[in-house]
Specification:
Elements: E1 2-9, H1 15-35, E2 39-46, E3 52-60, H2 64-71, H3 75-78, E4 82-90
Antiparallel strand pairs: 1-3, 1-4, 2-3
Length: about 100
């Protein structure tokens, strides 16, 4: 089952510092999920000046419960970077199946 996650960073003065403090851990976990076929795509959300203010991920897990298990160890959650998240079930279109792991 595929899911799209939108994670929105806090807007306080320390938000960028929190993001950068755990960014390497977030990317390392993302690389692991890509290798396992569980993360299909990811982007940083930017403001008009180009600063990172959130994330968009397309994930493939067997259930929403597995998404929640991953969120429990995701550095942007445990590091208080994402202050608001939205998760929706999605289906990656057939034009993009080459991006998916077998």
């Amino acid at each position: 089952m595929q899911f799209m996650l939108l994670g929105f960073d806090g807007t306080d003065a320390d938000a960028q510092a929190r993001r950068m403090a755990v960014r390497a851990e977030h990317l390392a976990l993302g690389d692991k999920l890509v290798a396992e076929g569980k993360m299909l795509y990811g982007t940083a959300l930017l403001d008009d000046s180009g600063a990172m203010i959130g994330s968009m991920l397309v994930l493939e897990f067997d259930s929403r419960g597995e998404v929640d298990e991953w969120l429990a160890i995701e550095p942007y959650m445990t590091g208080d970077v994402w202050r608001r998240i939205e998760i929706r079930p999605v289906r990656v279109g057939p034009s993009f199946t080459g991006l998916r792991k077998p």
